[in-house]
Amino acid sequence: MLKYNIEDRHPGIHSCFEPRPTDVFLVSFPKSGSGTTWLKALAFATLKRSTHPPFDGDHPLRHCNPHDCVKFLESYFNQQKGDVEALPSPRVLATHLPYSLLPGSIAEDGERSGCRIVYVCREPKDVLVSSSLFTRKAAPAMGFEERSFTIQEAL
């Protein structure tokens, strides 16, 4: 059973977020790899080509990581990145939230709102291995005790 209360972790995300018809959401499971950085760069460059032509020497992707150009929807509700409504259209946003936890304005009213969802998936076993390797490297730096799990425990 998933024990994750989205409103506790990201207050206002369900009640305040209003998708626009031009919004594009890049949805993936954490550590899914599979070209998510490349997809962020491609989506940003494609949707912002009217304001940032590819030949523009000051194009944001020439100076910034794609993760800086396409931020996570959740970060706007953590009071860290500012107001999502201030972003100019078309907005490109990323999220690791599963479809069932997306704000209803996206998931339930998506067809009515006109926003698009691009789902990036990867073989679940590969994600498990990537997540495990990442956690083993990151745990000491984050102050967590390194612990091994069997495949059965991890599932």
Explain what you see.
The structure is a single chain. This protein is mainly alpha-helical and 155 residues long. The chain is built from nine helices and three strands. It has two domains: 116 residues, Rossmann fold (3-Layer(aba) Sandwich); 33 residues, no CATH class. A three-stranded parallel β-sheet has the order 2-1-3, with helices on one face. The termini are close together. GO terms for molecular function: sulfotransferase activity.
Q: Helix and strand succession?
A: HHEHHHEHHEHH
Main beta-sheet strand count, sense and barrel state: 3 strands, parallel
- Quick one: how many beta strands? 3
Strand neighbour order, sheet with most strands: 2-1-3
By CATH reckoning, the class of the largest domain would read Alpha Beta
N- to C-terminal distance: 12 Å
Query: Could you name the CATH homologous superfamily of the largest domain?
Result: P-loop containing nucleotide triphosphate hydrolases
CATH topology of the largest domain: Rossmann fold
